[in-house]
Amino acid sequence: MRFLATYFSALIFGLGLGVSGMTNPSKVKGFLDIFGQWQPALIFVMGGAVLFHGLSYYFIRRRSSPLFGEKFLVPTKKIIDTRLVSGSILFGIGWGLGGYCPGPALASLFLLNSSVLTFIASMLVGMVLFFVTVKRP
To answer: What are phi and psi of 105, to 5 degrees?
Structure first.
């Protein structure tokens, strides 16, 4: 049952990314180009996602335990440090240059587009380099 819930959640997420245009790098770059030919349509996609998450989080946290787990796994770290800020900056740079973030890139993978494959390969190399070189606290 847990597998089916995960599968359908990922399917709905991927379809939502595709329908909303988040898998189209030119649309994402247009959204990020606030000083050029800005395309604000993705504000509604992101606003809807934040609203849905906020409402879901409110109701889910009222439960004593998750449906498919023993306890909720909620981040407890509250400190904004150099690792968090530098990681956020790198994420933003990658998103701005490539027009993809990891979710939409994975949703676009089935297209076998060379830009998607290059982005995912670069993302995987970056992940490996991080795990090989960075010490964990």
So the answer is: -65, -45
